[in-house]
Structure formats: structure tokens, C-alpha cells
Amino acid sequence: MRTAIYWLSRIWRSDALSAFGLASLLLLIFLGIFGPLLPLGDPTQIAAGPRLGPPTPQHPFGTDELGRSFLPRVVQGIRATFLLSAIAVLISAMIGTFLGMAAGYFGRAVDIMVARGADILFAFPALLVGLLVAAVLGPGQVSAIAVIAIATLPLLIRVVRSVTLSVAGRGFVTAAEVAGASAGRILLLHILPNVMGAVMVQLTYALSIGMIIESALSFLGLGVQPPDASLGSLLRQGSAYLTIAPWMAMSSGAVLSLAIMSVNLVGDAVRDALEPLKGRDLT
Amino acid sequence: MSPLAEIRDLVISYRTGSGGLRALDGTDLILTPGETVAVVGESGSGKSTLGMAIGRLLPGEAHCEGGTLSVAGTDVLNADADTLRALRRDKLGFVFQNPMSALDPTMRVGKQVARAMGGKPGQKEIEALLTRAELSEPGRVLRAFPHELSGGMAQRVVIAMAIARQPALLIADEPTASLDASIREKIMATLNRLRDETGATLVVLSHDLRLIARHSDRVAVMYGGRVVEDGAVETVLDAPAHPYTAALLSAAAGSEKPGERLDPIPGMPPSLSGRCEACAFAPRCTFAREQCRTERPEPRVIAKRRVICHFAEDALAAPGAERRA
Amino acid sequence: MRLLLYLLPRVAAALITLLGVSVLVFLALRMIPGGYADILLGPFVTPEAREAISQRYGLDQPMIVQYWRWLVSLLQGDFGISMVTQKPVIHEFIRRAPVTLELAFIALGLALAVGLPLGVASGIRRGGRKGLDAARVVGAIGASVPDFVVGSVLIFIFSVWSLWFRVGGYVPFTDDPVGNLQTMLLPGLTLSLFGIALVLRTTRDAVLRVMTEGYITAAVARGETPRAIIRLHILRNAAIPVVTVVTTYFGFLLGGAVVVEVLFSIPGFGLFTFNGLLNRDYAIVQAGVLLAAGVFVAINMTADFLYAVIDPRVGS
Predict the structure, then answer these.
(1) Chains meeting B at 3+ CB pairs closer than 8 A?
(2) In contact, C82 and C38? CB cutoff 8 Å
(3) Which residues of C touch B48 (CB under 8 A)?
(4) According to DSSP H, which parts of C85-162 are helical?
(5) Which of A186, C144, C199, C266 is the most exposed place for a label (fewest CB within 10 A)?
């Protein structure tokens, strides 16, 4: 908890762009969690307003082809987009941390297999994996989670592996080995804490990649299915009426972009703080 | 003789996350042409900051809070970019601690040396320069990439580049610290030979008092961002007037690894956030008294050297203070 | 010799990666509901045709034999027959290759033309100090706004005010060069925005990293001009990470930009594969995924070769 507050205040103070990212991320997370409790309107109520009505004070994002208010739909979408991506990225983080640590610590055959496996997964463009998974599992949320996990796994494996390699050679690990600690104990007590920093930074990037993949799949109709909504599926819905009711596509697209950007900005700020690059003037 | 470089009461701080870190806290040093000066101190004493400040090479977060610094008639602290560049190019030569990182890994050695010489030198001239830095196979070296050289060879390349334009002042920051112990003496000998040939002033920054004392005319001991004792090598080493110099001498066995603190002196070197209003060495000093902790000592000339210590006379007279280098 | 010793293991690793890719695709295809014969031929298949497929791929044999036969037929260039057109899918992909290639080159060209100079300028200007420069804002936006959002905005703008560009209705370059560019520049621009941000951010970070190196301080200490330091030392050393990222990006572009091709109705690999999925024409999906991964691996091998050219330390 203390470290969380420390990081929040540090990002907040670092510069205007990072502070903007943090503020909008916190706002979006708040909307995602408490959105249904806020007096924004019912996302499922049909004919709450006119069909394809433009933005009004009552319906700030306009209404869709069924007369549903679009703002509560977008808030619903924020929740789905963050939640699906977060679940997928956490799965990927757990598997990736385990495999990466094992590869970096045990080396030899384990390392070769894990590293090669990461290369193999990395060779698939995420959306084509999406098509393949949709063929196998059918479109839906489970497919989206699987695709995001597959796409972000190699990134996490690579980072964790390289950090583990550098940590495993240090004195305290050698000391623990000499003292007869088991491999599991060393990985858990000595290596895992040192890997966490790198994992956290990579997690924010993985989360933004996950949100892009989720929304792209939903946009193509392969992710979240109606009546559920994610920001991508709302944009898909809106793009059908792009020329006559542009507010649907524009509002969901803007919120989606803001969501991804806020995650990226916070990730950048954390990375800059962990690994400051101090260059020099050329004069 | 008129001085080549004059540093007076120089104060330099680094901006850090929490306030500032004062690296130089009123440093004085005057260099005359043709001498070899050893600037000695632990890591954190401010000697590297001093060396880089002479060429105004400090990174952006360092800033000068006071004092003056002039080299060969140029006011370094206030010079414009072109003047500064001309000074660096024509008057100064730098040799860095790690020769491997001072050379661009993607460029052949010959081209880098040619850049340092300026103009379009022919292969003969480049080879001649490398030979002066005692590289035995200059033809092979100039075709090589830096990673294909040994540390000692790379340092000789860096030295050759530093003397390429006959600098008036050669600054070597721990020039042997990253090298094998067996070639440290040879590199120092090369540096001194080149100083004799070119008539340059040589400033060697090092933590290794015994090694560089053998190759120097003068020694300036730094502590807490100030030059605490400054005099001819024989004068200072025969009878140190600052307790820190004395402690360094008894500690120096010549076998420390680069960057390692001189452990036999108990305690840590100070890290200042502002002007030190006491003697910076007081917490580690066996001679320290009340005055040392409350009053900032000012430079005095005692027994043919400049020293910053309230009780230098006592340190000089103390038993065991007299020893041979 | 140095190059050869460095490249041989990399070629071997690439082949192993390709083999792994094929195993994963094979397993995934066998997991699709319905038998492999249905997948390849569709539900309206005569018993004779089904028998022929079964014979050819050894569907009554153990999995390992099936995999081997499948792999052999892939290596012979047989990626299956399209259920819809009843033609070998590989021909359909070859026919669409110029479209995807053109789109990839437009996007890559824009990404490099904008991203490299901005990245170098931003990296050098920052010089270790943190500031709010335009390049950071462009980088943050480009890396965050998904291509289908950019594309939707562009389509909206250009279909409401039909400026010079056209949305949809691809024309081959050889038939009508101007018409081709009218339809291809917008999707190319859409694709390039992410690439611009990627190249910009990578270049900026690489330049910043190089600026911390001792040889930059050494060059300043020698009195080199900023221009000479940038040209001689910074650009070449910063190029190494940029090459990695640019080749990865290009590899993904060549694999088919599914979303953008769908959005702008550009008949390249991505749209073809996507339609294959919608029509349950799985032979096309199979070929699309295999080709994309294969191209990606090949491009990355090219990157390995480029490193060795740029960085003399590589391989020694």
C-alpha cells in the first residue's frame, strides 16, 4: 500500500504528460468499477431517447439505433475492455514469470526450450492468432482472453528471463545456493522479488497491447458479443452508422484511445523512474 | 611562471531527486605549465567532478554555484560553445578511466584517431602517432575495431588521441584503474614520457596514492570537495600535514581495486547537500576537536605546502606522521 | 567467416521456429470442430472426395504420421484448396501479394520518414532532461490510438467531404496508378501511425541511451561539433535497436493488416484470411497464419544479418 502511494505520487510529480495519464487512468478505472452505480442511465433500456439521436444534455454521447443512451454503454464497455485485458495479462504474467524464471535460472535445455517457445509464439501476428482461435473456440470473451495471453506471453518471458539471468549471477543467490537452499526456495525468495519491477513495467505495456487486441477483435466481431459491450464492439456498432450518427464511433473511439494512452503514459513514467537515462549535452 | 589553469573556490552541485548534492565545496587548484600533478582522493571526494569541470564536460544536472575556473586564459565557466570547443580541441586532452567505453565500438580505431588529429591525416601519420603512444603494431591496431584490442592497447589509443593536437593540459582520470596491475606502471610511464615530449601539464586523478606519487611532481589531496593538502610530492609524503593524507598513506598498500574505498580509514566520505560549515573530515579524524566540528577551516601555508586543517601543526608533529612513500 | 559463423545458428533457430509454428497450427486445425476433411472441403463433399483427402493426409493414421504428411504437402506448396473457389489457396495468396506488399511499403515508408528524424531530434534535444516535447506527445498518441479508430475517423472525414482520396474500391497500380494511390494512401497512413510512434519512441530511447555512453563524452571532450557527433557516433550506434523494431513492424505488416484491410476493403492477405474465417473456409485461415508467421521469421533473419553489418562486435 505504501509503495503504491509512493509510486502514484512520484508519477504525479514527474511531468504534465505522466500526470495526465495517471489522472485519466484513475478516472477510467473509477468509471469501470462504479459506473453502474452512477446516475448515467441504464445501458440496456431501449428507446430511452430517439433512434440515432445526436448528443443532448440528457444523452451526452447520443443514442444508438435502438434508442439506447450511448454514454452508459461506453461506461459498460470501459469495464469489459479493462477487465478482459487485465485477466488475460495476469494469466500471461503468471505463466510468463514462471517460464522466464525457470529458463533464466536452470539454463541449458530448459532455457533453449522456453526461449524457442517464446520465439514461436512471437512469430504469430496477434490478429491472425485471433482468427485461428476464433476458428477453434468460436468468437467470444474466452477467445479474446486466449489471444491476448498468447500475444503478450513472449514479451513477459523474454524480460523475466533476462532479469533472472542477471540476478542469478549475483552474490546473494550464490550464497543461498552454497547454503543448500532448494531451487524452488531460491526462485521464490531471491529471484522473484528482483524480477517484479521489470514485470510491473512490462505488465503495463502488455495491458495496453491487450486492450488494443481486445478492441480489435471485438471490432471485427470476434471478441465480445452483443448484448455485452466492449469499447471495440461499440465502435463496430458505431461504424455501421458512421456517416449518419458519427457520435457513436467517435465517442467510443475517443474513450478507447484515451484508455490505452493512459496505460501507456503510466507505463512510460514507471519505466523512466526505474531506469532514468541521463544523456549529455553535445556542447 | 604564469599559471596554465586557475581554479578558485569552485562550487559545483548535482541536482538530484531530493535537493542537491555538492560535489565541489570551494576547490582551489593552480596548475603551472609542464608539471605533473596527482589529484588523490577516495571515490566521492570530488576529483572526477573537478577533472570534468576543467573541460566543462559535466552532465546537465551539474551546475556551478560559485568560484572561477580559467584554462589558458579562457574563462571556462562563461565561454560560449565555439570558444569552449576550440579550447577542448586545441588545449585539452582527456584520458578516461575505461578506455573501452571511450572508443566508439562501431568505428575502426584508425578513423577515430584520425578524427582526433583533425584534417585528413595519412596512414603514416596515424601510425606515427600510435607509435608515440607505444603501440607496437600500429598498422594492425588502426584497422581494428575497439573490441578487438586489449584494455591496455585501447588505453594507449585513447592516450594517442588525447595528445594528437599537442594539448597544453592533459587530464587523466584513473587512467590505470580498469587495467591489469601489470601494465599500470607502463601506462603511467608512457603518460609521463609524452608529457616530457610535449611540454604539457599532466593532471592524474587517482585513488591510488602510491602509484601516482612515484610519477608526479606535486600532489593535491582531495576530501569532501576541497583540496585539503597541496604540495610537492616529497614534502607531502615525507611529512603529511593533514590527518587525512596521513591516513591515506598508512592505508595505501597499492592493491585496491578500482573504485574501492580505502577501508582502513574508518567511516564514510561525506555527502554534502550544502556548504560544509565544519571540517568535512572531522567525523573520521583521530585529531578532531571541538573547533573542527563548528568552524570551517580555511587554507593556510604551512611547512611549504597548502593545507586545510585547524591543527595541521599538531598533525605534522604527531608521532608516526613521518614516513617514506 | 565471422558472418557465416554468426548466421548459421540463427538460420537453424529460424527453421526450428518455423517447425514449431507448423506444429501449433496443425494442432489448432485438428481442434476445430468437424473433421479435417470437412475443414478442407466444406460440408457439401462427396464421399469420393472425402476418401481422397483422407488418403492424401492419412487421416486414419496416427497424429504424427498425419503431421508428417501435412508438412510434406506444405513444403510442396500445397496449402489446401479453397472451399469457395475450389482453387489452391496458395494461388489466391500469390495473387494478393502485391496489394499487401504495397500497403506494407507505404506504411513503412511513412513510419521511417516521419519517425526517424523526429526521434533523433527529440532524443538529442532532451539530452537527459525531462521535458514535454512534441515528439513525446506524438509518440504517446500514435502508440495508443488503435488503427481502426484512426481509420474510422479518416473514413468519416473523407466520405463526408470526398476530398482527393477514395475510400474503398481498390484499383491495381498497373491499371490506374493515380486511382491506386487514391485508395491506398489512406489505409497506408492509418497503418503508419502506429509505426511512426514505434519508430519515434525507439529511436528516441536509442539516441538517449547512446548519449549516456563514454564515447560521446570523449567526443565532446575532443572538441567535436554536435553535428559531427550525431553523424559519426550517435546515428550508427542508435541504429541497432531501431533495426530490431522496424523489422518486427515490417514483418507484422507483411503478415497482413487484418483490421485496416477489412476497414478499407483492401483485397490483401488480411481481408482474404478474415473472409476465409467468416466463410468457414479454413484452408485459407491455415495458409494465412502459416504465411504470416513464415514471413515474420524470414524478416527477423534479415534483421540478424543487418545487425552484423552495423555492429562489428556481433558474432565475434
Answers:
(1) A, C
(2) no
(3) none
(4) 89-126, 134-144, 147-160
(5) A186
Interface check for B5 against chain C (CB to CB < 8 A): the answer is no
Contact with chain C for residue A120, Cβ under 8 A: yes
User: Which of A120, A133, A261 is the closest to C21 by Cβ?
Assistant: A120
* C264-288 mean pLDDT: 87
pLDDT of B227 reads 94
Can you tell me the distance from the alpha carbon of A82 to that of A80, in angstroms, rounded to the nearest whole number? 6
Strand partners, B205: B39, B173
> Predicted confidence band at B319 (pLDDT cuts at 50, 70, 90)?
low
Please state, for a pLDDT cut of 70, what percent of chain B lies above it. Answer: 93
Q: What is the Cα–Cα distance from C241 to C197, expressed in whole angstroms?
A: 15
From the list B226, B227, B230, B228, the residue with the least C-alpha distance to B217 is B230
Distance between B23 CA and the closest CA of chain C, angstroms: 19
Residues of chain B with Cβ-Cβ distance to C221 below 8 Å are: 55, 57, 88, 92, 94
- pLDDT for C128: 44
Residue C42 has pLDDT above 80, yes or no: no
8 A C-beta contact, residue C115 and residue C195: yes
Shortest Cα distance, chain B CAs vs residue A32, angstroms: 34
pLDDT at C132: 52
User: Between the ranges A48-52, A99-103, B43-47, where is the mean pLDDT highest?
Assistant: A99-103
Q: What is the mean pLDDT of residues C141-157?
A: 88
Query: Which residues, other chains included, contact C3 with Cβ-Cβ below 8 Å and sequence gap of 6+?
Result: C305, C308, C315
Yes or no, beta carbons of A260 and C145 under 8 Å apart: yes
Chain A partners within 8 Å of C289 (Cβ)? 124, 128-129, 131-132
Q: Stretch C163-183: mean pLDDT, rounded?
A: 77
C312 and B147: CB-CB below 8 Å?
yes
Chain C residue numbers touching A219 (CB-CB < 8 A): 146, 148, 259
Is B8 within 8 Å of B62 (Cβ atoms)?
Answer: no
CA A4 and chain centroid, separation: 18
Residue C137 in this model has a pLDDT that exceeds 70: yes
- Grid look-up 611547512 returns B303
Tell me, what's the pLDDT at B324?
Answer: 37
- Rounded-to-integer distance, Cα B94 and Cα A8, Å: 43
CA separation for the pair C257, C41 (Å, rounded): 27
Which DSSP category does C234 fall into? I
Contact B60 A280 (CB under 8 A): yes
- Is there a contact between B57 and C129 if contact means CB atoms under 8 Å apart? no
- pLDDT at A277 (0 to 100): 64
pLDDT tens digits for range A123-160: 888 888 888 888 888 888 999 999 999 999 999 999 99
Q: A278 contacts in B (CB within 8 Å)?
A: 59-61
Distance from CA of A230 to the nearest CA of B (A): 41
The most confident of the ranges A247-256, B266-275, B315-324, C59-68 is: A247-256
Yes or no: say if B205 and B95 are a contact pair by the CB < 8 Å rule.
no
Query: Which three cell numbers, joined as nine digits, stand for C235?
Result: 546515428
Q: Which of residues 8-67 of B touch C (CB under 8 A)?
A: 55, 57, 59-61
* Overall average pLDDT of the A1-23 stretch: 81
Question: What is residue A156's predicted lDDT score, i.e. its pLDDT?
Answer: 92
pLDDT, greater one: C153 or C135: C153
Q: In terms of residues, how long is chain C?
A: 316
Chain C residues close to B55, C-beta within 8 Å:
221
Determine the pLDDT at residue B256: 47
| Chain-chain contact of C289 with A219 (C-beta, under 8 angstroms) | no
Cβ atoms of residues A228 and A80 within 8 Å: yes
User: Contact at 8 Å (CB) between B81 and C226?
Assistant: no
Say if B91 is an interface residue toward chain C (CB within 8 Å): no
Residue of B nearest to C312 (CA): B106
Asked if B272 contacts B280 with a C-beta cutoff of 8 angstroms, the reply is yes
